[in-house]
Records
---
Amino acid sequence: MRRILARLALASLMLTLCGCGTSPTPTIRVGVALYQQEDTFISTVAQSLQQRALEEEQARDVKINLSVADGRGSQTQQNEQVDRFLDQKYDVICVNIVDRTAAAVIIDKAQAAGVPVIFFNRQPVEEDLSRWDGAYYVGSPGAQAGELQGQIVLEAWQQDPAALDRSGDGVVQYVMLEGEAGHQDALLRTKYSVLALTEAGVPVEKLANDTADWQRGQAGIHMTQWLKEFGDQIEVVFANNDDMALGAIDACLAAELDPLPFVVGVDATPPALEAVEEGTLQGTVLNDAQGQAREMLDLACDLAEGTAPQVEGGHYVWLEYSAVTRKTLDAASAGAGNQSE
Ligand code: BGC
């Protein structure tokens, strides 16, 4: 009997030492459906999500299982991926919806499965998002990106009108490279960039506009054509994102245009920041991929842990844009230099 008791005591001591008796770390399973993984900005958001998941794991003492699916631009394919996440009982799904008018189907399925859904970057229409309390949107307000782009041009105009208005006719001649048709960021950035100039009383003339689907190659093709038509009459190039701005610069460099027109983009991708440093891109607007990833995972973990999150109108989390020019980059690096001294 004494030997049995001694063995039991030893077994319980071993359980305590190896921690086998404690409850396992809870796991939060998050399904992420991307509209198109090879999109430059979206791939940055996906990387930031992976990075942020590691940080949240530490902060919350949980395990986060992040599963990423690429919709490759097909709503049908994305719906199947969402169905799979719901069938497999993920705790939360994050959806970068392919077709932003198709959110109702996903919201209804998520509600039926009781799985909260966080849309990001591609904003569903308001009526759809308000169908269910468990539907959210994390993003940045496209109008603000447009305004900041316009202000970068406005500042250049105010400082040295002659440098911008090369024809000297008192009017800013511009071309507009638009993102995907129907995307809220394409619509809003296009409208508000120009409005920032006209509201400040700067006369403008649109020489051409076209959609280049957020892509550098397509933007290069449009710009090559416009250079043939308008040559150095093009004083400003507004591009709804950096990839398209870089495509316009490629075309100008290939045409050996000197000086280049005043080109502005949005996103602040690494190659765009290099172009700002080099002086080929005059400015961009930071689309905060890291902030969006942080807010999404924060919200996802809160929802999985059953905490009711306080967000705008019950559905929205907004992240601010900020302007980036050679001046702001120099100021930031001077600031960093001071801190390390
Ligand atoms: C970004 C683009 C990106 C698009 C994808 C926009 O907010 O600025 O670079 O292609 O989102 O939805």
---
Amino acid sequence: MVQAIKWERGVLTLLDQRILPHEVRYVSCADHRQTAQAIKDMVVRGAPAIGISGGYGLALAAKEAAGKFGSAGDTPEVLAAAERFLREAASLLVSARPTAVNLSWAVERVLDKTVSALKLSGVAGAAQAALEEARSIELEDVEANRKIGENGAVLIKPGSSIMTHCNAGALATGGWGTALGVIRQAWAENKVKMVYANETRPWLQGARLTAWELMEDGIPVTLLADSAAGYVMFLGKVDAVVVGADRIAANGDVANKIGTYTLACLCKHHSIPFYVAAPVSTFDLSLATGREIQIEERSEKEIVEFMGKPVAPQGVRAFNPSFDITPGELVSAIITEKGTVFPPLEQNIAAMIK
Ligand code: MRU
């Protein structure tokens, strides 16, 4: 399976997802600044994948701190300067993209471990602890994906055609994906007839990434223009929709790629189950509802241009929210590695994440 993130000889190496599927090229990030830029520029994308990358970004910062401050000895002044450096690096990484909570969750987790190690064993120990924690986050995600796949496949009936949106696959995670993990497991159990992948304007994660991943695995996939989703449901061709998530509020409202909310409304109209597959790290119980989730707005250029070529009249205004919020009341179930949460979501999410 394709690997979006690699840690090789002290360098973070990211598969450049902007140029897939036609070119397979890796980009090296030698420090946390380059890592933050790569996340912002969509070299790596998908909530768990940017979390894992952010974790390694902080490990790079801890390595830099060891080189910068290590020779002066672990005096209180050196430790304080190293901690300041790490906290600034963490803020830079977290600010790269605002919607997916996995990014701040992972960076803060590595930061906590690193700062504790700094106090106990100095700058060299902190660098080692940072790398170990980043690696754990990646390995845990692989395992979470596998369990999400198993838990989700139970919901898929034999002979199903499944629609998905954006890319919640191997390219977006450390393992085989969340939504695509469910599809991969259901395929392994001979339950999948067809996968409908929505193209996902404007970055075309569905067309470029999901279609590619599924074809590589030999899973039958049909690509749709985003605007065709409703008609395909009307034709009776969709048995379930499975998508990923970037942040899930305490009441079960889900932030995911723009267009997800539209699909959930269409599912309600057509009585099609609408499933969200996400690891527990995607829940943000500090937010009561999805209204509090910060939605990333990206450049107007992504809308008025197509593949770098202008398509709209010059000077036209555009609005480019990268994500939307699907109210929990439209979600049939949220599939996690700890089990599947059914409505009432608010109560059952709280019970699952104690
Ligand atoms: O802008 P992107 O490509 O990072 O958006 C990705 C999504 O919306 C995914 O559905 C989500 O992050 C879940 S990935 C397992």
